[in-house]
Amino acid sequence: MRAAAAAIAGLLLALAACSDSNEAPLVAEEILRLNERANRVAIGLEHYVASEGIRRAKVVADTAFFIEEESLIELRDMEVTFYDEDGKETTFLTAREGTYDWETGNMTARHDVVVVKREEGRRIETSVMYYERPEDRIWSDVRTTMYEEDGTIVEGTSFTSNSGMDRVELTEPSVIRRGSQPRSEE
């Protein structure tokens, strides 16, 4: 029994010695395989975009892959909060993936893209959406569905708007469901 205990203790010491090396730990191979072009990987990114000292957007992502040669950040499980010229929140975007160009401030969101204007109860869903920072424009060139607070659902072949969704234009709009209309007082 003592011999078995001594053998187990020796084995545990040997295993502990193997893991106690002076080598720097390597990034998990699974993370490296997710984006082979990346120079850096960040787990848990929060980035603010400002213009003339006023915040215009906040970008949050579960994982960010920095591709320095192209000035790009590939984002996974992303959220973007847009702000107006006074720094007040206007809309909130979620997507499974996206690309942010840190030189221009432009962004592409992909896969299950949802943009919400909470104040008015408006929601837009599409598979790809682009944000052009200089023009403060969001748009998509693929099928888009817009949901209004009153229950109205409108589909279009594409859309364009400002980031605050104050002026949404759907191309070839088709009303899928009419919402409830308030009754007029007689």
UniProtKB/TrEMBL annotation:
Keywords: Signal. Residues 157-186 are annotated as: Disordered. The keyword Kinase does not apply. Residues 1-19 form the signal peptide. It holds the Pfam family LptC. The keyword Signal applies. One of its GO terms (cellular component) is plasma membrane. GO terms for molecular function: lipopolysaccharide transmembrane transporter activity. It comes from the Bacteria. InterPro entries: LipoPS_assembly_LptC-rel, LptC. This is LPS export ABC transporter periplasmic protein LptC. It comes from Candidatus Kutchimonas denitrificans.
